Amino acid sequence: MQCELLYQPVSTMARIRLDAGEQFLVEPGAMIGMSTNMDMKTGLAGNSQSTGILGKLASAAGRMLTGESFFQNTYMPQGGSGELLLAHTLPGDMVMMEVGDHGLKLQSTAFVASSTGVNIQAEFGGARSFFSGEGLFLISATAQRPGEQLLVGAFGGIQEVQCDGSMVIDTGHLVAWDANLTFNVKKAAGGWIASYLSGEGLVCQFNGQGRIWMQTRNPQAYGTLVGSMLPPRTN
Amino acid sequence: MRYEIRQRPNFSIALVTFESPGEQLVVEAAAMVAKDSALAMKTNMRGGLLGAAKRKMLGGESLFQNTFTASKAGETIWVAPVAEGDMLAFDMDGTQPIYMSSGNYIASGPDVTLDSSFQGGKGFFSGTSFFMLEAKGNGPLFIGSYGGIHPVNVGPEGYVVDNYHIVAFTGGLQYTVKRVGGMKSLFGGGEGLVCHFSGQGTVWVATRGSAALARFIHPFRPVESNK
Fold first, then answer.
1. How far is B102 from chain A, CA to nearest CA, in Å?
2. What angle do CA B126, B129, B135 make, to 5 degrees?
3. pTM score > 0.90 for this model?
4. Interface check A37 vs B, CB under 8 A
5. I need a surface site. Which of A4, A43, A177, B122 has the fewest CB within 10 A?
6. Which of the listed CATH numbers 3.90.870.10, 3.60.160.10, 3.10.310.70, 3.40.605.10 matches domain B2-219?
């Protein structure tokens, strides 16, 4: 699999080249173009390790809770190599990251695509971890072997930072982080009122050593800004 | 007439410089950003009332277009699309038409003709691209799109593009609208309808869609209270 990111950072598109026999798992709606030899199969999303229909259903239902789709599309070129053009919905960048030994955690709408050796599961983020309207669930990505890749999309630019000990990040700006980091969602200031007044709401406190990817704009804040200026909706 | 496109790719704008008196550029209503004050503007319905009405109803373009005429060499005009995105410029030489999705037309030379080409049954399920605007003739043509614009050279093996992301394609291509992966995918897979292009030519793909941004913002609108 080769990936080339084009039109960065606002209108980023990923051009993916798959060799014969390679497969790629894609979020429904993310494919904007492809070579004609690409075969697409729609399947229940979730942990590929889940056995039996019940296990798969439970896993797929979990993904739906994250705001991701119940179904996922697997693309495989027939008779030679093939090409996929993938894009995210909002204006912003994309990044291809290696899942690594520890796995990755993703904010629920960040998933765009992955190699097929990546297991994707919904994970309850804890009672307080409502990601400023993003939902109570996170995506946990793990891989059995090194080299497995994950394509992630964001709103705005994507800034990678290294957590060296501890760090605090606004939940609305979180995209992904190494799963070996421990995290705790909490109020930005001491009390709820002070926290509200600070305008920061909920933040995520990370501890440990690992990578964190932030998006330079907060989609919820942007939606609130523009949405509040529009006439009321009836549906 | 010479031109260049600046501020690519998200805020593209075309600077057109006229090289002789009498040269003209036809510009979609509201697409002019700036011009030399000596440049004369005339508003008209190209192709007459019927042609203009058909273009507006079917192709999504305005009823009226403005024609700018140079009084001397060196006069300039700036034209740009409405939404944030890139532009394409073509030097049409009469050999093959350019088809564009409705709403993407920005400007063209006076010898480029526009027509809404009916896509008939094959476009029936395609939603946005039911009608394509056909440009043919000689001279410059400017097209704009939301997001980045990615060119794909279509060879004998063809290419597949999501319907909502087609910006334009060259006349040497044929296409058929298909569902990806059958009924199951239509309901579950989210990919919906695609165009299978075949033949020899280029198709340009938009890397974002303005409808997706609108869908994202919609839930943030206040809810009307029932009294």
1. 18
2. 150
3. no
4. yes
5. A4
6. 3.60.160.10
